[in-house]
From TrEMBL, chain A:
InterPro entries: Ub_conjugating_enzyme (IPR050113), UBC (IPR000608), UBQ-conjugating_AS (IPR023313), UBQ-conjugating_enzyme/RWD (IPR016135)
Residue ranges constituting the UBC core domain according to the UniProt record: 1-157
Keywords from the named record: ATP-binding, Nucleotide-binding, Transferase, Ubl conjugation pathway
Annotated metabolic or biological route of this protein: Protein modification
MF GO annotations: ATP binding; transferase activity
Species annotation: Zygotorulaspora mrakii (Zygosaccharomyces mrakii)
Keyword Nucleotide-binding: yes
Name of the protein described by the UniProt record: UBC core domain-containing protein
Pfam family, one: UQ_con
From TrEMBL, chain B:
Protein's name according to its UniProt entry: RBR-type E3 ubiquitin transferase
EC number, as in UniProt: 2.3.2.31
Catalytic activities: [E2 ubiquitin-conjugating enzyme]-S-ubiquitinyl-L-cysteine + [acceptor protein]-L-lysine = [E2 ubiquitin-conjugating enzyme]-L-cysteine + [acceptor protein]-N(6)-ubiquitinyl-L-lysine
GO biological process: protein ubiquitination
One GO MF term: zinc ion binding
Record field: compositional bias (Basic and acidic residues): 71-85
Domain RING-type: 179-391, 183-227
């Protein structure tokens, strides 16, 4: 458990320190309540040059009891996330480093958010959880992709 | 009728004079008794004796097995002898061997030995490369000749910057004992750590947690901080001796699963055997002829290589899958069928079945009845087993609903008989578990040799095979066109086998060793008869399938 305590302290420092590589990415990364470090919420900025630019995106993070041997469980919540590697209904993310097999105990939550940023920049339509968006991407229709993402963010269902 | 008369299962019926008359009558009327008589057709006696000698040869082969190195193990005989037509007509003889993950791993180690002079890197490293390439020597060598260095780096055997010696801090891989060390993973102060050339150092407790689950996955395990690979010796150092064996085992397991065209796990619970079929391409020929390749593992479990079910002839794999699917769907409605106890139809005392024989005698009122249909036994014993044939009601309800009910009723009947035979087979098998004791009892009390006592397990084996064939024949019957003449002939063959099986099963309930020895000839005789009837039923079933009379709807 003291590992997550250490991370907590580090994250606080990083987010207060500014100037870090995380400033453009992280709006918020904190435990849901200060007494329970097993449940976190995060808000990240949609990366520029992506249809997500200009939007804030919410995530929840659950820390398993054997963290960091096991990876954290990350989901897009509470808002629905239109992305070809995200289950639209559940917010579940298909990202290799979040699986037991590819996760390294040397990584931390900041690594995880970096990896998610990268996924937003480079979607992988070959292994889709959202087939509709994957198909649009495979056709290379950037305009339709941006349009669809924005439609969902602006209240579409 | 003339169309089928030349077929082998019929000629087999006609084969010896003893059954000639009966079978002739069988196809004309349906009334004459066919029963196993006590007379001995002597060629059958011989055929059973040859079983014994085959047993000897097999034992010898088993002993030699350890010495055979690269050579694939001999085919474990499936005890079918060399009867030419048991596997259908011109089927290719598919050779196979029964292995364990350890056997396969030993072979891989031999390949590593062969590769070592070629690659000239430590054997440990080659093992790791083989693991990475799914144990394919060819793919490994291909990549090696093209880009050996890249390969070593990509497999975590070499560090990217190793060449320029930068960051070389004289670190030797291994366990370190420290005064005080704050582990970056658990953030606790620890004294025992594991460090690698990359400089990444973590406490051994963290490494233990990390490695533990990964052992089951069979992939290369790396440093927790980078992609440098942990070798088997490192794993054993951290986790305790022979822990890497588990990793190798998982890796071989995934090899077997990935190569499931040639390798199949024995489907029996807790069995660790793997069947390796040398030439899987000929399996298609089997499928085309509605035959199945049945294999037997080292622990003597027989199963179909294609679908993994028990020996299911005369049914082919598609009949089996359709039948099983249907049974699953209907099982909720039909659970009552599975009950192992029944009330005596006369006095309602509860009777539990303790052997496979379907000839029941009520312990209370001594009423003799048939377990399957509940009817009085007398007609069963002396005439055909009428309870194996579904008798459709002649009421001519024309509506769809009635049709549906009729279909269900017909299915229920076949399902019920199928199940009863399954239960019987299991009970017979249970009895067979004590067969070793029985043979020993024979040896001790009657003074027969081990070889002489073998007729007992052999007859049990034949009984089981007969029951299994009978059981699956009901799946074939269910999917067969009831109006076709061959379907009727098939039903007749079922009756004959059913009778033969019940007869042998009854004999097997004798407990007294001396009586068993006295009736040894009867065992031979009846087992031989069951064998022939099984054979005939299988042939007939295959014909139904080949001629398209037996068809699953999808
Ligand atoms: Zn540690
Ligand atoms: Zn490292
Ligand atoms: Zn087995
Ligand atoms: Zn099969
Ligand atoms: Zn009986
Ligand atoms: Zn009774
Ligand atoms: Zn009956």
């Amino acid at each position: 458990m003291s590992r997550i305590v250490k991370e907590y302290k580090k994250i606080k420092k990083v987010l207060e320190g500014h100037g870090e590589a995380f400033e453009n990415l992280i709006v918020q990364l904190a435990p849901v309540n200060e007494y329970d470090l097993l449940s976190w919420k995060a808000t990240i900025r949609g990366p520029s040059d992506t249809p997500y630019n200009g939007f804030s995106i919410g995530l929840t993070i659950k820390i398993p009891s054997d963290y960091p041997i096991s990876p954290p469980m990350v989901k897009f919540e509470p808002y629905k996330m239109p992305h070809c590697n995200v289950n639209f209904q559940t917010g579940e993310i298909c990202l290799d480093i979040l699986t037991r097999q590819h996760w390294s105990p040397a990584w931390d939550l900041l690594h995880v958010l970096k990896a998610i940023e990268q996924l937003l920049q480079e979607p992988v339509p070959e292994s889709p959880l959202n087939v509709d968006i994957a198909n649009i991407l495979k056709e290379g229709d950037r305009t339709a992709y941006t349009g669809l993402v924005r439609y969902y963010f602006c209240g579409g269902t | 009728m003339s169309e089928v008369e030349s077929d082998s299962y019929l000629s087999l019926v006609y084969e010896d004079e003893l059954y000639d008359n009966e079978s002739m009558e069988l196809y004309e009327s349906q009334t004459t008794a066919v029963h196993c008589t006590d007379e001995i057709p002597c060629h059958k006696f011989e055929s059973l004796q040859s079983y014994e000698s085959e047993f000897d040869i097999e034992d010898l082969q088993f002993d030699e097995e350890d010495e055979s190195e690269d050579e694939p193990l001999r085919e474990q005989s499936t005890h079918t002898l060399d009867k030419p037509s048991l596997d259908g007509s011109n089927l290719p003889n598919l050779r196979y061997e029964s292995l364990t993950t350890d056997d396969i791993f030993q072979r891989m180690l031999q390949r590593v030995d062969h590769l070592q002079p070629v690659l000239s890197i430590p054997a440990e490293d080659i093992l790791l490369l083989m693991q990475r390439f799914d144990w394919s020597e060819e793919r490994l060598l291909e990549d090696w000749t093209e880009k050996a260095d890249e390969l070593l780096i990509g497999s975590g055997l070499k560090r990217v910057h190793e060449a320029d010696k930068e960051g070389e801090n004289g670190l030797v891989r291994g366990i370190k004992h420290r005064e005080s060390f704050t582990c970056p993973i658990c953030c606790e102060d620890k004294t025992e750590t594991f460090v690698m050339e990359c400089g990444h150092e973590y406490c051994t407790d963290c490494y233990k947690h990390y490695i533990k689950d990964l052992l089951n996955q069979g992939n290369i395990i790396t440093c927790m901080g980078c992609s440098l690979a942990l070798k088997n010796e490192d794993i054993d150092l951290i986790m305790g001796s022979a822990s890497s064996h588990k990793l190798m085992d998982s890796s071989i397991r995934s090899f077997v699963t990935k190569h499931n065209r040639n390798y199949k796990w024995c489907p029996y619970a807790d069995c660790k055997c793997i069947i390796h079929l040398f030439d899987a391409s000929s399996l298609e020929e089997y499928t085309r002829l509605h035959c199945s390749k049945f294999v037997t593992c080292k622990s003597n479990h027989s199963f179909c290589f294609t679908c993994g079910y028990e020996m299911h002839a005369p049914a082919d794999c598609s009949v089996v899958s359709a039948w099983v699917k249907k049974a699953k769907k209907e099982s909720e409605n039909l659970n009552w069928v599975l009950a192992h106890t029944k009330e005596c139809p006369k006095c309602s005392v509860n009777i539990e079945k303790n052997g496979g024989c379907n000839h029941m005698v009520c312990s209370s009122c001594k009423y003799e009845f048939c377990w399957i249909c509940g009817g009085e036994w007398a007609p069963h014993g002396n005439s055909y087993y009428q309870c194996t044939v579904y008798k459709s009601d002649d009421d001519k309800g024309k509506s769809d609903k009635d049709d549906l009910r009729k279909t269900l009723k017909r299915y229920t009947f076949y399902y019920r008989v199928f199940n009863e035979h399954e239960v019987s087979a299991k009970l017979d098998w249970k009895l067979g578990q004590n067969i070793g004791h029985k043979v020993r009892a024979l040896q001790e009390s009657v003074g027969v040799s081990w070889i002489e006592g073998q007729f007992l397990p052999e007859s049990l084996k034949i009984l089981n095979e007969g029951r299994t064939a009978l059981k699956w024949s009901f799946a074939v019957a269910f999917y067969s066109d009831p109006s076709h003449n061959l379907t009727k002939i098939f039903a007749d063959n079922q009756l004959l086998l059913s009778n033969a099986v019940e007869d042998l099963s009854q004999l097997r309930q004798i407990q007294d060793p001396e009586t068993i020895m006295q009736r040894k000839t009867e065992f031979y005789n009846k087992a031989g008869y069951v064998e022939n009837r099984t054979h005939a039923l299988m042939e007939c079933g295959r014909d139904l399938l080949r001629k398209g009379i037996c068809k699953t709807k999808d």
